[in-house]
Amino acid sequence: MAMTMKSVLVMMLGLAMAVTSSAAVYKVGDTSGWTILGNVNYTDWAVKKTFRIGDTIEFKYPQGIHNVLEVKKADYDSCTNSSPIATHTSGDDKITIKSAGHRFFICGIPGHCAAGQKVNIRVLKQRSSSSSDAPSTAPAASPPSSAAAAPSPGDSEPASTPSSSAGSTDSSSSAATTAPAPNANGAAAGVHAGFPAVAAAVALALVATMEMLQ
What we know:
The chain is an alpha/beta fold. The chain has a domain at 20-125: Cupredoxins -  blue copper proteins (Immunoglobulin-like, Sandwich). It is 36% helix and 16% strand. The protein has five helices and eight strands, in the order H-E-H-E-E-E-H-E-E-E-E-H-H. Helix 1 packs antiparallel against helix 5 (184-213). The protein is elongated, with a radius of gyration of 32 Å.
């Protein structure tokens, strides 16, 4: 029985770890890889992807035939290879994204960047765990209208006073029911952002349970 429970806990631990790991690996150019053959449109390839912090960009190419230079935007636009930020030459370069924004890559072999071997990777910002879509406060009750004011000494119809009081009651009741409902999107964002933390806590609890069964 203990062994069966251990097996179940191990499986649940593996599932929890899989949930917390959501990073993706993108092979630049897909099946074509990093090349000047086949007229691969790397701009079109990049705009169809959604890159996030933690993802990996993989450049696959014959070693010695191409390379990968990370450059500044100006050097990317002009295909200048003289001052790269980083140089990769392994033939299977895996670059992990650690910050949001644009990252620019070219092939430094003369003529290759001009032939289209360049790619602009746009990395999205991570959603903050604190939601800014908090429910708004209810608006203050509107002041009594002039129609509900007390009658002047010259008024000859005292029966109008109860009517004004009823109008004032209706106004307060309307103001009390105009509070906007909480924003459902804000609540959903908070749950989504906190999900990896919950999965990690489940994983830790499973490890502690396994230690107790030993």
